[in-house]
Each structure stands twice: as structure tokens, then as C-alpha cells.
Design goal:
Elements: H1 8-33, H2 43-68, H3 82-106, E1 110-115, H4 119-143, H5 149-168, H6 177-198, H7 202-218, E2 235-239, H8 243-246, H9 256-275, H10 283-289
Antiparallel strand pairs: 1-2
Helix pairs in contact: 1-2, 2-4, 3-7, 3-9, 4-6, 4-7, 5-6, 6-7, 6-9
Length: 291
């Protein structure tokens, strides 16, 4: 068993299992103790449930350090440029959503009926978006991308991490087959590209936070991901257009507009990562290259 866990792929799946097991167990305990259900769910209760993911990450990060004998920087949490990468990522995630809703607005598919500034709601939803981004980026980029790429290379690790990321989102409310395509594209190109470009989780954490916050709590169009509940979005947005392009109300991630914008942004990030020499070859090819 010890020899098996010395290989990056078993390490990745073992750590992911622990993260998800702790997350779902804590959520179940909280939901039972606080009697949380669809009929009484609020952003504040969502914030408490989101903490389950943070706790799951904080439990497994030391476990990964011991298993891999790595520093925090080696796991994807370098102190250098952390704030800059986090804020830059937030701007990228917000920019993706601004481009998506801007295109839909120009096409007449997105309209706003009201503007409401509720600082308390925005703060709550920002924290929730950050909680979700932190634990999901640790699980799917810090674990399921960073570790497998040591054995199978960056490209195959990107595919593996994105497929797992997409499947985990399959049970989400409003999710469709095209939603999974959109989530997978985001995981492969945008979030994965952000990690490979910087070799840091701070950039994808920022992207993920800005993405969810602006989609749901700024533009008010809803999301299929965690944190898709906002009592008072900044903009009371309405999506009314071809479902193939817009994804329909509450599910913009299944629309071709978002998928195409994410593809362009992600391709740029991966291009920059490749130009910086951050794409790793599979272990066997890397060994052959040194002979």
C-alpha cells in the first residue's frame, strides 16, 4: 500500500477521495443539525455549508505535504505574488462573465429590470464564492491536475482533472449535458490554464471566485455551481434568448456564448503557459529526453 501511494496517480485519487468524503460528511452533519433544506436555504446557511469544503481542504493539505514531502509552495500555495495572482484571477473571472453578459445584452438576450445594492448580501456571496473556489481548486487543480501531470504530463492531466471536475458538477441543479461541456471547458482551459501559467493555485482560485460571484450575484442570472443562491443580486437580470446560445435562465454555463468566451480565454492562458515552458511531458518521455 505504501509503495502504491508513492505514485502520483494513486496519491491524487486517494487525496480527492478524502477531500470529498470529509466535505460531504460535514455538509450532512451541518444540514441535519441545522435542519437545512431547500425550503429554508439562505446565503448565510450556504456560507456555513461552504465552510465544510474549506475544512476538507485544510485537513488534506497537511496530509498531502506529509505524503509528498512538499512545502506549501510545492503544493500550489506559494506566498510570493499570492495577492497579485488572486486579484488578477478575480479580474479574469469577472471579465469572462462581463464579456458573456455584454454579448447577450447586445444581442437582446439579457436585460436588467432593477439595480439593488445590498452590501450584506454581496459580502456573504463573495465569501461563499471564495470558500467554494478555495476547496474546489485545491481538489481539482491542486490534487487532480498537479499530481497526475507528474506521471502523465500536463495535457493528459488537464483532461483527467477536467473530466472529474465536470462529473462532480453533474448532480447540480439545472445541470444538462451541455452544462457539463461548459464546466469541463472551464476546468480544462481557464482554471487549468491559470494553474499551469503560474504554477500557483491563487490565480485559478481568483478566477473561480470572480466567475461564480459575477455570474450569480452581480449579473443575477444564476449558476449551476455551489453558491447559486443569492437573495439580492446587484442586477436583477433576465435571460431570454435562444437556449443553445444563452443556456436559458439559471444555466448560462450551458450556453455557447459562455463556452466560446471561456475557450478563447483559456486558449490564451494555455498558450502563455506553453510559451513560459510550464507544460510538462509524461514521465517516460521526460526520462527519454534526458538520455
Amino acid at each position: 500500500m505504501r509503495k502504491l501511494l508513492g505514485h502520483p496517480l494513486p496519491q491524487a485519487f486517494a487525496l480527492l477521495f478524502v477531500v470529498l468524503a470529509v466535505f460531504f460528511a460535514l455538509q450532512a452533519v451541518l444540514a441535519t443539525a441545522l435542519q437545512i433544506g431547500p425550503e429554508n436555504f439562505t446565503p448565510v446557511l450556504g456560507l456555513l455549508l461552504g465552510l465544510a469544503g474549506v475544512v476538507a481542504a485544510l485537513i488534506t493539505i497537511p496530509l498531502a505535504r506529509r505524503m509528498e514531502r512538499q512545502s506549501l509552495a510545492g503544493l500550489g500555495f506559494p506566498a510570493k505574488n499570492a495577492v497579485r495572482h488572486l486579484l488578477s484571477g478575480f479580474a479574469v473571472g469577472a471579465g469572462v462573465q462581463a464579456a458573456v453578459f455584454g454579448i447577450m445584452a447586445v444581442a437582446g438576450w439579457y436585460t436588467v429590470s432593477a439595480v439593488t445594492v445590498d452590501i450584506g448580501s454581496l459580502v456573504t456571496m463573495t465569501l461563499l464564492a471564495l470558500y467554494v473556489a478555495f476547496w474546489e481548486e485545491w481538489a481539482f487543480r491542486g490534487v487532480m491536475l498537479r499530481l497526475p501531470e507528474k506521471a502523465i504530463g500536463s495535457w493528459w492531466a488537464l483532461v483527467l482533472s477536467a473530466v472529474v471536475f465536470g462529473l462532480i458538477h453533474a448532480p447540480n441543479a439545472n445541470a444538462t449535458a451541455l452544462t457539463l461541456v461548459g464546466v469541463t471547458v472551464a476546468g480544462v482551459l481557464v482554471l487549468g490554464g491559470g494553474f499551469l501559467l503560474t504554477r500557483s493555485l491563487w490565480l485559478p482560485i481568483g478566477i473561480h471566485t470572480g466567475w461564480n460571484l459575477f455570474e450569480n450575484s452581480v449579473f443575477g442570472a444564476g449558476s449551476t455551481g455551489a453558491g447559486a443562491n443569492s437573495e439580492t443580486p446587484l442586477l436583477r437580470g433576465h435571460v431570454n434568448g435562444p437556449q443553445l446560445w444563452t443556456g436559458g435562465p439559471g444555466d448560462p454555463e450551458s450556453g455557447l456564448v459562455l463556452i466560446l468566451v471561456a475557450t478563447v480565454v483559456g486558449a490564451v492562458l494555455l498558450f502563455l503557459a506553453a510559451r513560459a515552458g510550464h507544460i510538462r511531458a509524461p514521465r517516460g518521455k521526460a526520462a527519454l529526453a534526458t538520455v
